[in-house]
Amino acid sequence: MWKTLAVAVLTATLLAPTHAQALENEELLSLVAMPLAVAAVSEITDVPVQELTDVVTLLNDAAVTPPQFIEVIRYVPAALVTRNGAPDFVQFVRDREREGLRGADLVTAIEQQLLVYGVPEMELAVNRPRTIDVEETFIPRRVLSRMAEVRRGRSG
Amino acid sequence: MKQAAALLSLVLLLGGCQQRQEAAPASAKPVMPVAAAGQTPTPEQLGALGAEIRKDPARGDELLQQHGLTRETFEKAIRDITESADASLRYAAAYRKASA
User: Fold this and answer.
1) pTM higher than 0.80 for the full model?
2) Which of A37, A75, A119, B28 is the most buried (most CB within 10 A)?
């Protein structure tokens, strides 16, 4: 019994700092990726840059964590290009922020609101970064599909 | 019982030593700070630093320290950059250049 206990304590003690360090590293890498995410979305032709900037500023003001910030930025293009009577997304975020929603609470509200713009269900309130490297697949395929639908609707 | 207590003490001591080792800087390689004290680092400087951190995240805090930054000041500078599409693009260009 003592041997088992000793092995358990030894394992936990040796692994705990490593796990904590890994989490800290992930948090730092998420921070590094934040401007990369904004740059990637700002390069998409249809996305209005001023509205993107407004959303980013509101996310920062509400102290949204870096992993959740990145997830919101990945999905936000679909909301920013949708017009035709859809609610103003920036105004929605601004209103929630003024109501006092912060961090994960604001992200959860955004997650629900994005459904209005035709973005299928998603999970933005992540605890750990899902994406650190901003590559070709950074903008989810379903967001790109939704944007293509909006474009077709405009030209049709 | 005594053996278990002794083993537990040894384990705790080892854990403490491990944490202290992680906190200590690993290399003495001199690095120019990204900005002088009180100056805001440019997007280019931060993009290059970001690439360094991406290459070796375990040395993240050490790299920040070498550039005269803490996690808090780094986060503030990064969030400031995100609030400008132009600054974010400059950061991304510097990041890609330093990553290549």
Assistant:
1) no
2) A37
